[in-house]
TrEMBL record:
Presence of keyword Transferase: yes
Species whose genome carries this gene: Luteolibacter arcticus
Domain of life: Bacteria
SUPFAM superfamilies attached to this UniProt entry: PLP-dependent transferases
This protein's name: Acetylornithine/succinylornithine family transaminase
Needed cofactors: pyridoxal 5'-phosphate
Keywords, alphabetical: Amino-acid biosynthesis, Aminotransferase, Pyridoxal phosphate, Transferase
Family: Belongs to the class-III pyridoxal-phosphate-dependent aminotransferase family.
Length: 413
């Protein structure tokens, strides 16, 4: 009997070792890992540079708290701002994606106080989108546009509304005096791999500017190379300028770390910077930005840039799309996504799904039996999240398993 709380319906396999794109279970069977701990192990398993950085830092200094200076945190913030965001701003370090999004939501509330409504009452509302996912904290589930994460947790927090994704007219109609911010994923990950269109992203940015509303990007899953450019919005509408961005997942390569960035842009006529609204005492964390987590993330971000992983991501996306198109399998309805955050849509009427199982989760179980780890994204989509440094051979092998498994499911039907 397990003493672990049963919040997850787990796949029936226990993983004990990993190397590169491969993991092994406790019976010694190996799997190609195109799940990567849900877009976390961006360099694959146990990449030497990351392992070395963690070992070195673990033997030097683990943790001191944010009461003292932390050089690794300063350096990581510099790298994020100068080499990745490339817009002036400041970074706060957290430990997860949900926490980083809570930071964005708190920033929106601060901003709403600094830039109140005409009658002087603060603005507070955060608009987000259906099928979004922003994490499991109370802030995160309220921002998330999916009912399933909220069941049983009401009363919900005030100040959140959800709008249809990629529908600019709906957003324009929804913005009202209370509205302080718009929060969105450039590519919705958990909600089924739904890509914001360039026109939508540009339109959202323009509406935010027009109504003095913050544009908050949740790049927790998409950031740091997963979608090619190190920031996913640049793969879609590179000219937009977000006010704030959250990250986690891939930025630590498997070491838990999250962060959010706030722009230095002025929020009023006195030139007060948005980033200055979160001043001493406004926010905090005990663990966030500790030397070990920052040393790990620095190693990951250096490797992404030095090995030019964005180029490999673009190349492998192209290959995956071409190979899957060449099969002409009717059970595959489409390939959505950007870079190596890809969703394969399934026509679930073409195979039999056991009673009580969601089709995508069922197919993921079959792929696991065949030696390929992938997560679902929504009920009818399989996600491909290989490491950013995945090779041609590994992609070919994974897709061969994918094709054979789907073909046999359809034939058996
Ligand atoms: C995973 C995810 C989160 C939550 O991150 P945690 O580290 O699990 O708290 C938030 N937003 C997006 C877009 C995610 O994919």
């Amino acid at each position: 009997m397990s003493h672990v709380l049963s919040t997850y319906a787990r796949f029936p396999v226990t993983l004990v070792r990993g190397e590169g794109t491969r993991v092994w279970d406790d019976a010694g069977k190996s799997y190609l890992d195109f799940c990567t701990g849900i877009a976390v192990c961006s360099l694959g398993h146990c990449p030497p540079r990351l392992v070395h950085a963690i070992r070195e830092q673990a033997g030097t200094l683990l943790h001191v708290s944010n009461l003292y200076g932390i050089p690794q945190q300063e350096e990581l913030a510099r790298v994020i701002v100068e080499d990745h965001v490339k817009l002036p701003g400041k970074v706060f370090f957290a430990n997860s994606g949900a926490e980083s999004n809570d930071g964005l939501i708190k920033t929106a509330r601060k901003f709403g106080h600094a830039r109140p409504q005409l009658d002087g009452s603060p603005r507070y509302e955060v608009l987000s989108f259906t099928k979004s996912f922003h994490g499991r904290t109370l802030g995160g589930i309220n921002a998330t546009g999916q009912d399933k994460v909220k069941e049983g947790f009401d009363p919900l927090l005030p100040g959140f509304r959800h709008l249809p994704f990629n529908d600019l007219a709906a957003l324009e109609a929804a913005i009202r005096p209370e509205t302080a911010a718009v929060l969105l994923e450039p590519v919705q990950g958990e909600g089924g791999v739904n890509v914001a269109t360039p026109a939508f992203l540009r339109g959202v940015a323009a509406l935010c500017k027009k109504h003095d509303v913050l544009l908050l990007l949740d790049e927790v899953q998409t950031g740091f190379g997963r979608c090619g450019p190190t920031m996913a919005w640049r793969a879609i509408a590179p000219e937009i300028q977000p006010d704030a961005i959250s990250w986690a997942k891939g930025m630590g390569g498997g070491f838990p770390i999250g962060a959010f960035w706030l722009s230095d842009r002025a929020v009023d006529a006195t030139g007060k910077a948005l980033s200055s609204l979160m001043g001493p005492g406004s926010h905090g964390t005990t663990y966030g930005g500790n030397p070990l987590a920052c040393a790990a993330s620095l190693a990951v971000l250096e490797e992404v840039v030095e090995m030019d992983l964005p180029a490999n991501v673009a190349r492998q996306e192209q290959r995956i799309r071409e190979i899957i198109a060449s099969w002409q399998l009717p059970v595959i309805t489409e390939v959505r996504g950007v870079g190596l955050l890809l969703g394969i849509g399934l026509d679930v009427s073409q195979f039999a799904v056991p009673e009580g199982k969601l089709p995508a989760a069922f197919v993921c179980g079959k792929l696991l039996e065949a030696g390929l780890l992938v997560p679902p994204a929504g009920p009818e989509t399989i996600r491909l999240l290989p490491p950013l440094n995945v090779t041609d051979e590994e992609v070919d092998e994974a897709l061969a398993i994918f094709r054979a498994t789907l073909s046999s499911l359809v034939t058996d039907h």
